[in-house]
Amino acid sequence: MEILNITAYLLSKLKEGVLLNNLLFLKKIASLVVVFSFCAAFWVANGRNQNLANENQQLRERIVANEEGHKLLTTENARLNEGIHKLHKKFDDYNKIMNQAFNERYENAQQYKVLYDEIKILLTEDNCSRDYINNHIVERLRNAANAAGSASTSNDVPVGYTSITDKSN
Fold it and tell me: Smallest Cα–Cα separation from 165: which of 110, 121, 109, 113?
């Protein structure tokens, strides 16, 4: 029943022209409302677009900075890598030289031991090596060596040393 009352009221007002005036007014401003709505939407979208453009620019700048940093790090890494390879090569060369020197020292020590053993055997078999040498003869031998320039003047060997194989000294 109420719906009928409302409908009747609207029809009476329609007849009076008040509602018609309101509808015509709404029809006239409807296009303005739509245009204003689109303008507001474009204004909001433009603001958001500006924010996104600023963020994109900042991200591009960061990417460029990161790429430059990456290039710098890559260059530095390559330089360090080259230095490490040079150092490794020098260590290898040094190890080869040290190994060669060690082998030469070992061979010399072996030769020295063989010669020492041979001299020891020869001196144990030589009867002259067991005899005492007169001091006068030792001095004459030293003077002759000094005159030839092949011996030092220091008295490294004590005068009166009897034998190389003598174990008492």
Answer: 121
